[in-house]
Amino acid sequence: MASDTQISSAPLSGMRDFTPYEVQLRDWATQKITQTYEKYGFTKIETPCLENLALLKRGEGGENLQLIFEVVKRGDKLEKVLSQAHAQNAKVDRNQLTDMGLRFDLTVPLVRFYCQNQGTLPTPFKAIQIGSVWRAESAQQGRFRQFTQCDIDIFGVKNELAEIELLGATAEALTNLAFDGFTIYVNDRRLLANIAAHCGFAEERFDNVFIALDKLDKIGLEGVKTELAGEGHPESAIANLMSLLVSLSNESANQLDVIAERVSPAPDVVQGIRNIIEIVGSQANGKYSVKYEPSLVRGMGYYTGPIFEIKYPGYNYSVAGGGRYDKMVGKMSGRDVPACGFSIGFERIIGILQDKNIQPETQYQKLAFIYDADRDDIAKVAQAAATLRERGFAVVSQARKKDMKKQIDQLSNQKITALCIFKGDVQNLEIKPL
Q1: With contact defined as beta carbons under 8 Å apart, do 290 and 281 qualify?
Q2: DSSP 8-class letter at 250
Q3: Domains of the chain by residue range
């Protein structure tokens, strides 16, 4: 018997409905981004929302591994687990109940896709992915359990041309969405490792050092020092890092020159960053800037080389991020393939576009076609609406209401800019601005 309990009409916690305006804005932004990326030779692919749980838990997703939505086994597989536990008079092992999970990003599925299809894909392979991902976040303002990611990746390019194309394409996509004045920050995980080793930190604890360093812009030098001390790192190593960071904060200092002189990393690593900054910067035409940022870390453990983020003025979070992950394909297929990717924070840029009250471009002018439901012949109404569509309008047909002024006001709020009041004559359709 059906329950009479009323079910809430609100979406589940961490999930969202989108209004017609929001969907239109998201579709417009997606189209702009895709068109830009296609100019750079990228092509769209799609991967399933569900992946093998063992694949998702391989250990390269950082803290996201704790946020996977796991899917319970079904049918015979589930019955087998339950029967075995019952026969042994034991509790069901939670890990035996699940075998799939919702993807938490697009990179892990992309690498699986590349390994599966490598024999038929071109080299280099340049992919676009735009799709939903899921994370079991604690739902709060700005954090969702389902959201869209927007990625481009390049497989098969060893040198920094991959990074240059990724940054150039993403910067152009953002400028095509009316963003300007943003800053691209660049670093390299190898430089970070060189800095940590030079200062005297233990190699097995480099990631812990990087976590503190990544907070430099939020907690300052003293905050980083306090956090590292609280984690038990050697005082001498902390002092060396503080000395280096002070040198890097000198406005007159060229930060890469300071790193090259004091830390002595591999020259090709430093030159690679210089090339990225100089070449991408030369394409900016004053619309954005490109800078080396020694405290940029990026959270994913799979990064092996250059890493980058984009920040937009007035917002304290990045709107895009990515980097090189040359070892990830090899961990799945046994053979390393150079790979690099960049992801636009799609939800964040949509939020900024809404803050800026950006109105998406539309292919058709929207027209309200008003008819009298009591008097007009319905066949003629349909014919007249079809005629208007043939003339290039997006037609919203509505029966005339008693309060015509209120009706027109409501139509205006729907971004409808033209009006046709049907007078029974299909051949004489008068169109007025709304």
Answers
A1: yes
A2: -
A3: 365-433
Model-wide pTM > 0.85:
yes
Q: Do residues 51 and 100 touch, judged by C-beta distance below 8 A?
A: yes
**DSSP label at 381?**
H
Spatial CA neighbour of 411 closest among 387, 386, 392, 432: 432
pLDDT (tens place) for every residue of the chain, 434 residues total:
456 688 899 999 889 999 988 999 999 999 999 999 999 999 999 999 999 999 998 766 556 678 899 998 888 887 787 777 677 777 777 778 888 999 999 999 999 999 999 999 999 999 999 999 999 988 776 688 999 999 999 999 999 999 999 999 999 999 999 999 999 999 999 999 999 999 999 999 998 999 899 889 889 999 999 999 999 999 999 999 999 999 888 877 799 999 999 998 899 999 999 999 999 999 999 999 999 999 999 876 789 999 999 999 999 899 999 999 999 999 999 999 999 999 999 999 999 999 999 988 888 899 999 999 999 999 999 999 999 999 999 999 999 999 989 999 898 888 899 999 999 999 999 999 98
Nearest alpha carbon to residue 397 among 424, 373, 361: 373
Could you tell me the two tokens for 395? 């037609």
Phi, psi of 186 (to 5 degrees): -125, 140
Strands 418-421 and 365-371 come out as: parallel
Q: Which helix (H) or strand (E) segment is 193 a member of?
A: helix 189-199
- Tokens 């060189």 correspond to what residue? 194
In whole angstroms, give the CA distance from residue 44 to residue 71.
27
* Helix boundaries (H) for 75-124: 75-87, 94-97, 107-117
Q: Name residue 164's amino acid.
A: I
